[in-house]
Amino acid sequence: MSVQADSEDECAEVLARLVEGGFVPVLTPRFMTDGRWLARAVPAPAGRGREPAER
Question: Is there a domain that residue 32 lies in?
Fold first, then answer.
């Protein structure tokens, strides 16, 4: 799942809600060349905690 936002705080907030919902962040908020912020998360495998996925 991708998150796009106008600010880093907004992007991080939505990413945190995804993590609370069982997703694992795979890309923390990054400023993109189009002036927006992007983050990504994937569904957590069964039995996995909320730690970020290894890169």
Answer: yes
Range of the domain at 17: 2-43
How many domains does the chain contain in total? 1
16 lies in a domain?
yes
The CA distance from 13 to 54, in Å, is 21
Q: Quote the CA–CA distance of 29 and 49 in Å, as a whole number.
A: 20
Q: pTM for the complete prediction?
A: 0.79
Q: List pLDDT tens digits, range 10-37.
A: 999 999 999 999 999 999 999 999 999 9
